[in-house]
Design a protein that fits this description.
This protein has one domain. Helix content is about 70%, strand content about 0%. It contains 13 helices and two strands; from the N terminus they run ααααββααααααααα. It is mainly α. Strands 1-2 form a two-stranded antiparallel sheet.
Length: about 375
């Protein structure tokens, strides 16, 4: 990792300009994720008739590919980041429309698009691209008050939210709405308008409860602790209690034998049981460190586009982690949201790597500029 300062290669120049501490924190999450999927997924694979290490092998493939994507994207200049994300946004919109017609229905939702042996979730890939494009529009509005950046940002949000609701994917809709509101606030929208938007979001959430049966079922289960369908959550809480301070040891946990989603939605519970409170706090600390250091880095930037785009990516990263951990601890209803870089999932891991690559690209030191 100690590269010669005279090294003029792409790797040498990249290393001298990127934030090494953020890289180290992301690397730690990726290593933890690989280890925990290895211990959590075999029981799940055998239960559904797959090879023991089916999910493990696939996840390591996703992780290696995510590191490559993160590196390549982090090399881009801001202008190229905007272009790539605009193309990505258009492509993701097309796939989200396509998935409504040809996507298989899984658990009441049509979110997946099968391309040969590969299954993609377009809503995961649209998130980083959406945040960058909206940041671009908002920043252009700040530079030129005549530019309709706010109007374009609102239109793009309504379009994406409509496609998500049609799937339906209410969890992702709520997360993206919260991040979009935060970006709008940073872009200078008066607090009174933020309040109106927040009130509208509350009414939209109530409407989702009344319109979508699966949303109402999840909330009802969450509010009724005696509901028999709260099985996964009860097992999750038992796992934390069994793990104690130091855990039962890698591979010694039992919660993965009983929770169907132990390698995805409830991998935080597996960490708690096998590794204990100490490692849980390390994982939480890594997420907190990444978010705080990311925002600290933005304090040094005078570019509104960089600030808004990176803030959106960081808010999404943090919210997704908080929701996943909160579900495992019965603080939120189940959302089906992965823990970034730790839970099993190809679309989520690759899309998150793309977003982090954008974060690293925009926060790199650019000498002489």
């Amino acid at each position: 990792m100690l590269l010669d300062r005279q090294d003029r290669s792409i790797l040498g120049r990249w290393w001298r300009t990127v934030d090494p501490y953020l890289l180290l924190a992301f690397s730690a999450l990726i290593i933890i994720g690989g280890l925990m999927v290895t211990t959590a997924s075999p029981y799940v694979a055998e239960r559904i008739g797959l090879e023991t290490f089916h999910f493990t092998i696939r996840q390591f493939g996703y992780l290696f590919l995510s590191v490559f994507i993160m590196f390549i994207v982090s090399l881009l200049e801001p202008k190229m980041v905007r272009r790539v994300c605009t193309i990505g946004f258009i492509g993701a919109i097309f796939m989200m429309i396509l998935v409504l017609f040809v996507g298989p229905e899984i658990k009441g939702s049509t979110r997946w698009l099968s391309i040969g042996p590969i299954a993609l979730q377009p809503s995961e890939f649209i998130k980083p691209c959406f945040f960058v494009v909206v940041a671009w529009m908002f920043s252009e509005k700040l530079k030129n008050p005549e530019f309709p950046g706010y109007a374009i940002g609102i239109f793009l949000y309504l379009m994406v939210a409509a496609l998500l609701v049609l799937q339906p994917d209410i969890g992702t809709t709520i997360t993206m709405t919260a991040v979009w509101i935060g970006m709008f606030f940073l872009a200078g929208l008066p607090i009174i308008f933020i309040g109106f938007i927040a009130i509208g979001a509350i009414f939209a959430a109530i409407g989702a409860y009344l319109i979508f049966p699966h949303v109402a079922a999840r909330i009802d289960k969450f509010l009724n602790p005696d509901n028999e369908e709260n099985y996964q959550v009860r097992r999750s809480l038992e796992a934390f209690a069994n793990g104690g301070f130091l855990g039962k040891g890698p591979g010694e946990g039992t919660v993965k034998k009983y929770i169907p989603d132990s390698h995805t939605d409830f991998i935080f519970s597996v960490i708690g049981e096998e590794m204990g409170l100490v490692v849980l706090l390390i994982v939480i600390g890594l997420f907190a460190y990444i978010i705080l250091r990311g925002f600290r880095t933005l304090e040094k930037s005078n570019d509104s586009f960089t600030i808004l785009a990176c803030a959106g990516i960081l808010m999404n990263f943090g919210l997704q982690a908080i929701i996943n951990m909160g579900v495992a601890l019965k603080l939120f209803p189940t959302k089906g949201m992965t823990l970034p870089f730790i839970s099993y999932g190809g679309s989520s891991t690759l899309a998150m790597a793309f977003g982090i690559g954008v974060l690293l690209a925009l926060t790199r030191k650019r000498y002489g500029k």
